[in-house]
Every structure is written in structure tokens, then in C-alpha cells.
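Thread: quick sanity check before group meeting

JM: Hey all, I'm pulling together slides for Thursday and realized we never actually wrote out the predicted structure for the chain we discussed last week. Dropping the sequence here so it's in one place. If anyone has concerns about the input, flag it before I start.
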Amino acid sequence: MYAENNQDIGQEKASKLTWKQKLKNFLTSDFKIKHESNEKVAAAVAVGVLVGILPIWGFQMMVGVAIAQFFGLNRLVVLATSNISLPPMIVGVLYGSYLCGCLVFNDVPEASMDNISLDMMLSSGKCYFVGAIILAIISAAIAYIISFLLLHLLRRKTQQQ
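JM (edit): ok, ran it. Output follows.
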């Protein structure tokens, strides 16, 4: 009886929260990465980097949050790391994607303004698209390894103190 009354009081308090308090509770629950395993946080970083480089412009954050929700990862970590394609970084990401695609297809089209054609643009687009997928997978794997090792080292040091 007492537990039921106590539970009802908790539900009443939750229903009386303002939208600002609900938003604050939502955000603070996602920022609590101290209680998550190193693997989960590293996986969230990797998913963020993966969707940040994939050629799905405009949908990167939505796809990242959907993947994070599906796998039970920290959504805010995914959102923060999916911003790898911000304007200062985009040139490197685009060029790296294009170079990866050129390596796969063993095709380096000459870039000059005199011989621009539809075939050259399609070839370049194919190189970019495939290269972006490859670069995203490789970058996500590297991000997972680095973040896992950093978390392992940093959390071990704080536990020893």
C-alpha cells in the first residue's frame, strides 16, 4: 500500500514538471557517460564519425540519433561527434573521400576547365561517393579505437586516485 502511494506521488511530480524541467532531465540523463561502459561511449563516438562523413547531407544528425536510439548509445555523444563535417573540416573530408574513391577505382581524372564533361563529373561523383563510404568506415574504426583507449586510460587513472 505504501509503495503504491509513493509511486503515485512520483508520477504526480513527473507530470507536474514544466517543459524546461523535462528538457533538463532529458539532457542531463544523456550527459551521464560516467556510468556507461567504455565500449558504449566509444561506439557512440564511432557512430557519430561514421554518419558525419557519410554522403547523406542534411540527414546526418537524424540518422545518427536513430542509430544511437536503436543500439542504446548516448545520443548526445553521437550528435557531438557527427559534426565532423563542419565548414573548416569539410574540405578535408570531401578531398579525402574523393582520393579514397580514386584509389579504389584506380582512376585519377585530370581536372582542368577545358575538358569538363558530363562523363568526367559522373566519374568524379562515383569516386567521391564510394570514397566517402570507405573513409567513413575507416574513420569510425579509428575513432572507436582512439576513444576506447583514451577512456580506458583516463578512467583507470581516476579510479586509482
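AS: nice. The chain has two domains: 1-31, 36-160. The chain is about 75% helix and 0% strand.
JM: adding both to the slides.
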